[in-house]
Amino acid sequence: AEMAAARLSGTENRLVSLPLSRIRVIMKSSPEVSSINQDALFLTAKATELFVQYLATYSYKHGRGKEKNALTYTDLSHTAEECETFQFLADILPKKILASKYLKMLEKEKRDGEVREDHDEGEEEEDEDEA
């Protein structure tokens, strides 16, 4: 039986391109996981691989990367934002913005926080934003 198991794991490794040892480490990082069955490890690795392929293919087909014949980060972040299936990835694949734009957003959030505390100043600041 051990020979069959050894042969099977050799075959499994060729069927999955992701490193099983790395996936085992990630799975073990979950406090609910005490031990990992070899079949569960293989199936998780294969499912992950297929998911990444699907995400990449979808993003390439629906993105602007095909014009450049390349898959770009922007294609991936656009997919995460626009496609309902992948929206759970939006925090992991955020749209890239310039640092200056981000700092302005932070400033505006800070001002909006102050606006809630003091309405009089808030109205003046909102008028400035519109102008």
From TrEMBL:
Main location: nucleus
Single GO MF descriptor: nucleotidyltransferase activity
Bilayer-spanning residue ranges: none
Spans annotated as Disordered: 109-131
Domain Transcription factor CBF/NF-Y/archaeal histone, chain residue ranges per copy: 17-78
UniProt keyword list: Acetylation, Coiled coil, DNA-binding, Nucleotidyltransferase, Nucleus, Phosphoprotein, Transferase
Matching Pfam families: CBFD_NFYB_HMF
Signal sequence, start to end: none
Basic and acidic residues: bias regions: 109-119
Tagged with keyword Nucleus: yes
Role description: Forms a complex with DNA polymerase epsilon subunit POLE3 and binds naked DNA, which is then incorporated into chromatin, aided by the nucleosome remodeling activity of ISWI/SNF2H and ACF1. Does not enhance nucleosome sliding activity of the ACF-5 ISWI chromatin remodeling complex.
Subunit structure: Heterodimer with POLE3; binds to DNA. Component of the CHRAC ISWI chromatin remodeling complex at least composed of SMARCA5/SNF2H, BAZ1A/ACF1, CHRAC1 and POLE3; the complex preferentially binds DNA through the CHRAC1-POLE3 heterodimer and possesses ATP-dependent nucleosome-remodeling activity. Within the complex, the heterodimer with POLE3 interacts with SMARCA5/SNF2H; the interaction is direct and enhances nucleosome sliding activity by the SMARCA5/SNF2H and BAZ1A/ACF1 interaction. Within the complex, the heterodimer with POLE3 interacts with BAZ1A/ACF1; the interactions are direct.
PANTHER family: CHROMATIN ACCESSIBILITY COMPLEX PROTEIN 1, HISTONE-LIKE TRANSCRIPTION FACTOR CCAAT-RELATED
Protein name: Chromatin accessibility complex protein 1
Phylogenetic placement of the source organism: Eukaryota, Metazoa, Chordata, Craniata, Vertebrata
Gene: Chrac1
